[in-house]
Amino acid sequence: MRICVIGSSRFPVREPFAGGLEAHTHALVRELVRRGHQVTLFAAAGTDPCLPVEHLSYPSFQPSDAARRDVAAPAGDWLREHHAYLGLMLELASGRRRFDVVHNNSVHHLPIALSALVAAPMVTTLHTPPLGMLESAVALSDGGVRFIAVSDATAKAWAPRVPSATIHNGIDLETWTPGAGGGPAVWFGRLVPEKAPHQAIIAARAAQIPLLLAGPCWDPGYFADQVAPRLGGSVTYLGHLRHQQLSALLREASVAVMTPTWEEPYGLVAAEAMACGTPVAAYARGALPELIDDRVGALARPDDTDDLAAAMRRAATRDRTQVRRHVERRFSLRTMVDHYESAFQDAMAGSRP
Length: 353
Hints:
Mean pLDDT: 93
Structural class: alpha/beta
Keywords: Glycosyltransferase, Transferase
Order of helices and strands: EHEEHHEHEHEHEEHEHEHEHEHEHHH
Pfam families: Glyco_transf_4, Glycos_transf_1
Low-confidence stretches: none
Domain Glycosyl transferase family: 188-319
CATH class of the largest domain: Alpha Beta
Strand content: 15-25%
Helix content: 25-40%
Number of strands: 13
Domain Glycosyltransferase subfamily 4-like N-terminal: 19-174
CATH topology of the largest domain: Rossmann fold
CATH architecture of the largest domain: 3-Layer(aba) Sandwich
Radius of gyration: 21 Å
Protein name: Glycosyltransferase family 4 protein
Distance between the termini: 18 Å
CATH superfamily of the largest domain: Glycogen Phosphorylase B
C-alpha cells in the first residue's frame, strides 16, 4: 500500500522520544516499511532520518504586527502547529500526491476536520481521551474517517461522539528483552503533574524499595516543587534516556511503577516494562486494568500511595517469565501492525471497522 502517516509537528519522531505517541509512530512506520509498504511520514523537523520522513515545516508563518496586537491572539506555538497541519492537508487535497490511505496519527484537529477534501480514505488513531478541538472536528466530519482507539477505555470515552475499534499499541520485542530483575523499582515517563512521579516516590519509600526515575522534565515548576525535594537516598533521577538504556534498566528492575492522575489512554510504559519481564504496580485508572492483572503485576486504588506501596511489594513477587509471555501474546509490534494493515484495507474497501 501507499500509506501517508501524519505524525507530530511539535516533537520529532526520534529517540529519546518525547512521549508514547512519538515512540508508537516510529515503531509503526518502521514495521510498515519492513513489510514492503510505500510509506511517507509527515512529522516535525529533526525526525529520525532512517524513516521515510518529510518534515512538517512549511514556510515559517509569522503573523503581522496587527495580528499580534489582537488580545485574543493564539500562542505562537499553537499558530505554527495550525499552519503546518493546514499546509499539509491542503497539499493532500490538491491531488499532487497519490496515497491509498492516510493514517492520521496526530492529536491535531485539522486532519479530521479537512479529511473530506482528501481523495484517499483516512484512518485516525485516538491517542487521548476526548479533547475539545478534536471533538469539534469529529462532530463535523462527514463520517468518512474510520477511528481506532488505543484501548477499550479510550474507545468507551469517545463512544458518545464516534464509534471506534480497539487496536492496542504494540512494542518491538527485540528492543525490550527480558532480564533477571531483583534491582530497584523504576518509574519512567514524562515528569509532569498528570503522571505524578512524586507519588511513586512516596509509595516507594513507604514500601522501602529503592526507586529510579527517568524521563523528560516538561514542567520545571512541578519538578522543582514536587520531585526534586524528594530525591536523594534511595531515590535517584537519571534524566531522559533512550530505549536501549531504558531496556537495560528494566531488565534489572524488580518492579515498574505507574502513577497516572488522569485517565491513562493506554500506558506504553506498562507494555515495555512487562516485555522485560518486569511486573507493574499501577493505579487502576484508564486503560491500565486492560493491560495488567494479578498474574503480571498489581493494581492499586487511584491516588492512594499506601495501597500503591502494597501493590509494589505484591507485584515484585510475580513470575517474570509469565510477565514476558503476557506481552508476547497480547502487545507485540507485529500483532499491532497486522491489525493496522487490516484497518487500512477495510478503509480502502469502504467497509466499517
